[in-house]
Design a protein that fits this description.
The protein has helices spanning 13-24, 31-41, 44-54, 61-73, 90-102, 117-125, 165-179, 181-188, 201-215, and strands at 2-6, 27-30, 81-84, 109-114, 127-129, 136-138, 192-196. The chain is α/β, with parallel strands linked by helices.
Length: 216
């Protein structure tokens, strides 16, 4: 199964794709996580993309496509994957189609999580992330056991640089202009599944699973 999770920043793509990856044994490929890893390791690529990400803009396609190609070539992605945060534009979607075609496969579904902008701003102001293991919390809905500390590895939690309100609003603007047209792109081929992304995490997960089960 080859799935794409679409949706605005903070719509729950990471949260839902972690669960789907565990339940359906699919490789989870998040371009945002890959880029943040490069930034935290201080690589040349990380230095190149850091400022772009802090401004809430899109990283250039050639960088993203190189990262995606290398991940899709790894064995773990061969039996199926969930793409979280990629593609983010029609150009990226076309490039993905071409890469998958070379491998003799294709996208099975694009699941779009729908969440109101004001809900997103609230969610992201409460998100806290672990800079070491990547675990994600929310001060309102999924707090850590000890304030400010990761339950899994004991590291101090951080507010992502791009989760400040001004940057979240820019990310939303970029999403509406560059990424949302992808819904039409996937609707034309019958691959789009639109899901209400509001409500409790478990409720959203049940909706996503129902959409996947309808594929079979
Ligand atoms: P990326 O990391 O992909 O960010 P994003 O798409 O903006 O998504 P987020 O990680 O912010 O949110 P999410 O939807 O995963 O929500 P989450 O589950 O964490 O990209 C970051 C940057 O990298 C981009 O701005 C760009 O610069 C660059 N980039 C990445 N990919 C690129 C590409 N393909 N092309 C070009 N540039 C690229 O949930 C959010 C919070 O809400 C959490 O606290 C969570 O606990 C909570 N939550 C989740 N679900 C619920 C719920 N149902 N109810 C209440 N709270 C909830």
């Amino acid at each position: 199964m080859r799935l794409i999770l679409l949706g605005p920043p903070g719509s729950g793509k990471g949260t839902q794709s972690e669960r789907l990856s565990d339940e359906y044994r699919l490789a989870r490929i998040s371009t945002g996580d890959m880029l943040r890893e490069e930034v935290s390791l201080g690589t040349e690529l990380g230095k190149e993309v850091k400022g772009i990400m802090e401004l809430g803009k899109l990283v250039p396609d050639e960088i993203i496509l190189e990262l995606i190609r290398s991940r899709l070539d790894r064995d773990e992605a061969s039996s199926g994957h969930i793409l979280d945060g990629f593609p983010r534009s029609v150009a990226q979607a076309r490039a993905l189609d071409a890469v998958l075609e070379e491998k003799g496969t294709r996208v099975d579904a694009a699941i779009a999580l729908e969440v109101d902008d004001e809900v997103i701003v609230k969610r992201l102001s409460g998100r806290r992330s672990c800079p070491v293991c990547g675990a994600v919390y929310n001060l309102l809905t999924a707090p850590p056991n000890t304030v400010g500390i990761c339950d899994l590895c004991g590291e101090a939690l951080i507010l992502r640089d791009d989760d400040r309100e001004e940057t979240v609003r820019e990310r939303l603007r970029v999403y509406r202009s560059e990424t949302e047209p992808l819904k039409e792109y996937y609707a034309k081929t019958g691959l789009l599944q639109e899901i209400d992304g509001e409500g409790a995490v478990d409720e959203v997960y049940e909706r996503v699973k129902s959409a996947i089960e309808r594929l079979n």
